[in-house]
Amino acid sequence: MGYRVAIAGATGSVGREMVNILAEREFPADEIAVLASARSQGDEIEFGETGRMLKVRNIEHFDPAGWDMALFAIGSAATKQYAPAFAQAGCTVIDNSSLYRMDPDVPLIVPEVNPEAISGYTRRNIIANPNCSTAQMVVALKPLHDRARIKRVVVATYQSVSGAGKEGMDELFSQSRDIFVGDQPTPAKFTKQIAFNVIPHIDSFLDDGSTKEEWKMVVETKKILDPKIKVHATCVRVPVFVGHSEAINIEFEEEISAAEAQAILREAPGVMLVDKREDGGYVTPIECVGEFATYVSRVREDPTVENGLSLWCVSDNLRKGAALNAVQIAELLGRRHLQKAA
To answer: What are the tens digits of pLDDT across the range 185-216?
Structure first.
């Protein structure tokens, strides 16, 4: 006997990926409901490449009673409106927005990193999915932290426009086209031109000069991995459609060599080490699109600090950064707590 699973926001880029990944991973679902706003009601979404079509339902009129879990990809405002009702009806919410991430009664989960924390979901019947840039970073950090204890992380992100949704992807496409035909590109979704440019600004600015995206990486890493770790982030939007990259500098309490770190990462869950010290011996964003893994390359020692390493980390932000992690949480929830499927 399988689960009854709802996907809220199924017509968006992350929601569609959730549907695709449920199909790809053969998630044990007896019934799947795809939900969106009233304007999408009646539209159809293909369930992976199975040829099976799912008709979109209006979330406003959906009764969550009797459904086992719901994967939310509808943003904080809509999540605030609908998630409590789903949770109270007994349908466990796995939420991709930032709304509940720092709620002490809601576990923030990356299954390869802190699976044991999922037991706390019973307090609110809600589980939070971390920020896309945090998710891939902690997958790479976890096995190294277990070995040598991380003291400090300094990270610069290179985040694709898909992190800003369909509007971000459309703006990169339209601006690139405008430039090629000699027209002036006009920023709308982003604060400055994104085509052939980089923007050191994601989300709103805080009083200390950092952005909310940078703050998320700090506090989420502490909650997921270890509250003692010091984190400093600079988050940058780059003209890439899909795939986030990160240059990560790590300072450890104990000595660890690049060779040992490579050996650890080679065996780490969720990590794919591609680290040849030659032309092309590393992974770039375009190569990670559609893949499940978090790719690590360019592992090397940092001689400017004691026990320091640097590495390059790349992942499909629509997958591990959002949809895949949510489905992995659903799998973990089923295995450890619901135990409904055979």
So the answer is: 999 999 999 999 999 999 999 999 999 999 99
- Pair 91, 35: CB distance under 8 Å: no
Rg of the Cα atoms in the chain: 20
With beta carbons less than 8 A apart as the criterion, state whether 2 and 9 touch.
Answer: no
Dist. CA 122–CA 5, nearest whole Å? 18
Query: Over the stretch 139-151, which tens digit does the pLDDT of each residue have?
Result: 999 999 999 999 9
In the residue annotation, 244 being an active-site residue is answered as yes
Q: Which domains does the chain have, with CATH numbers?
A: 3-130+322-338 (3.40.50.720), 133-317 (3.30.360.10)
Place of tokens 């509007």: 167
Spot the catalytic one: 132, 235, 288, 313: 132
The separation between the first and the last C-alpha atoms of the chain, rounded to the nearest angstrom, is 6
List 91, 145, 235, 244, catalytic entry: 244
Contact 204, 212 (CB under 8 A): yes
Residue 145 falls in the annotated catalytic set: no
